[in-house]
Amino acid sequence: MRYLNKNAIELFLDAGTALSAFASAAFWFWSAWGDLPQMGNYWGTTPKDDPFFQALLSSAQMNRDAAFFSGFSAGLFGIRIIFSRFC
Known about the structure:
The chain has helices spanning 6-32, 51-86. By secondary structure, the protein is mostly helical. The protein has a domain at 14-33 and 49-86. The two termini are 14 Å apart. 8% of the residues are buried.
């Protein structure tokens, strides 16, 4: 632990916060980019290989990833504030 001083830990937390925030923004922009394909008309349930359904699933997964990175960034920032106040 003697190699990690307070400035190095704060730099690590700041870099992690910035990278996570960038990843979050990238996933949200990517999930909103482009048009959805035309939704087909089906009797009963929509098949799993429908292009609209696949695009919707992909967008939902990217939104989940963006929310994860956003929460991770906020968590690192909170740790950074607590660390700088008490250490």
